Amino acid sequence: MQALTVVPLSKGSARLDDVPEPPEEDGPVLVETLGVGICGTDIEILSGEYGWAPPGRERLVLGHESLGRVVEAPSGSGLAAGDHVVGIVRRPDPVPCSNCAVGEWDFCRNGKYTERGIKEHDGYLSERYRIQPDFVVKVDEGLGMLGVLLEPTSVVAKAWEQVDRIGGRAHWSPSSVVVTGAGPIGLLAAMIGVQRGLDVHVIDQVEDGLKPKLVAELGATYHTGPIEQAVEAPDIVLECTGVSSLVLDAMEHVGPGGVVCLTGVSSGGRPVEVDEGDLNRSMVLSNEAVVGSVNANRRHYEAAAEALAAAERSWLSKLVTRQVPLASWQDALDRKPDDVKVVIQVATP
Ligand code: BGC
Questions:
Q1: Are 205 and 156 in contact (CB under 8 A)?
Q2: Atom 12 (ligand 1): residue with closest C-alpha?
Q3: Beta-strand relationship, 136-138 and 128-131
Q4: What is the 338 CA–ligand 1 centroid distance (Å)?
Q5: 259 has which bridge partners?
Q6: Which of 222, 215, 231 is closest to 176 using CA atoms?
Q7: Among 41, 149, 293, which residue has the most ligand 1 atoms within 8 Å of its CB, making it the best to mutate?
Q8: Are residues 128 and 25 in contact, defined by beta-carbon separation less than 8 angstroms?
Q9: Which domains are seen in the chain, by residue range?
Q10: pLDDT digits over 203-215, tens only?
Q11: Which segment of 17-26, 161-170, 268-277, 327-336 scores lowest on mean pLDDT?
């Protein structure tokens, strides 16, 4: 079968390969891949900046934002041929650490977890893959290819859970949220904010085009300026860019008792000047919290499935700006100005 493979940490090594059928040891559920979304992590892997091949191998099958159709599943697994499913990305570490032992692999403590399509475990960008039933989440067939949005939505569902849990350390009735970045993660985070009845503000750089339109259609407000101009003292800032200056801005301008949740991975190497004393003083005197959030466990995938089910289908469909057949995978990586989520189509849903 065909698969898009890459040599991690080797720029320009991606190619469409003929690979063996998925190994039985990956699990008894056989899935036919329908599509795979491309995200910043994939671009980093393709640029030779991130990723790990499976032990003893040179190449990794790419792809972690998947949508597939079950071909065969054992009885009693709750899955049947034809079901539309998404594969969970992370697998617990084998030790396991105290968090992986209870299904909270997104909080793995020893870093020995694996991630499909990212770290030491082949991804989903192959015509078929095998998986354990516990790592499969069913999605509404009516979503069609939009089911690929489940994985990125699970990442923001986890971020929202962190915000709730931390906010809940005292009386918590937030009214405003600033989301930095109108990429797929930012837009999906904003969507959940609107679903929660919050006053949602999204900040990005582009002045016009699809992103401001998508934000307006959500019922949120779009800005291109700094956080403090968007809304004064927001209760929550969901940072979805990883741009270091925005991270600092978020810490400086979140409101008293507010929560800053960081979801973007910064590249580093761009030091900025900070008045650490001033930052510390305002964080302490205002009980501010800053939390990093990565990955998602099964609970978050399930919350994400509910958020997608509650979303306006026509709005969601505008997030998938291009679908590119597997044979033309290179086109998917060629970013166009109005791209939000580009999907590599492997089969027809
Ligand atoms: C994925 C996460 C993963 C993270 C770090 C993200 O793109 O969505 O599941 O944990 O990259 O590897």
A1: no
A2: 118
A3: unpaired
A4: 23
A5: 236, 289
A6: 231
A7: 41
A8: no
A9: 2-138+318-345 (3.90.180.10), 154-292 (3.40.50.720)
A10: 999 999 999 999 9
A11: 268-277
Nearest CA to ligand 1 atom 1: 295
Report which secondary-structure segment, H or E, holds 326: none
Burial of residue 344, with CB atoms counted within 10 A of its CB: 0-12 exposed, 13-18 middle, 19 or more buried = buried
- Which tens digit of pLDDT belongs to each residue from 74-95? 999 999 999 999 999 999 999 9
| Least confident interval from 86-100, 228-242, 263-277, 327-341 | 263-277
- Residue 232 CA to ligand 1 centre (angstroms): 31
State which H helix or E strand residue 221 sits in: strand 221-223
Structure tokens belonging to residue 199 = 């006053």
CB 52: neighbour CB atoms within 10 A? 15
Between β-strands 176-180 and 199-203, what pairing exists: parallel, antiparallel or unpaired?
Answer: parallel
Is the C-beta atom of 295 inside 6 A of ligand 1?
A: yes
**Contacts of residue 241, Cβ cutoff 8 Å, sequence gap at least 6:** 180, 181, 183, 186, 264
Q: What pTM, to 2 d.p., does this model score?
A: 0.97
Ligand 1, closest atom to CA 118? 12
Q: Which amino acid is located at 198 in the chain? A: L
DSSP conformational letter for 209: S
Select from 27, 31, 3, 32 the least CA-distant residue to 15: 3
Which of these, 169, 168, 157, lies nearest to 193 by C-alpha position?
Answer: 157
Residue ranges of E strands in 248-338: 259-262, 289-292, 320-325
Distance CA 197, CA 202 (A): 15
* Average of per-residue pLDDT values in the chain: 96
Which ligand 1 atom is nearest residue 89's CA? 9
For ligand 1, mutation pick of 42, 47, 89 (most atoms within 8 Å of CB): 89
Q: 89: CA distance to ligand 1 center in Å?
A: 8
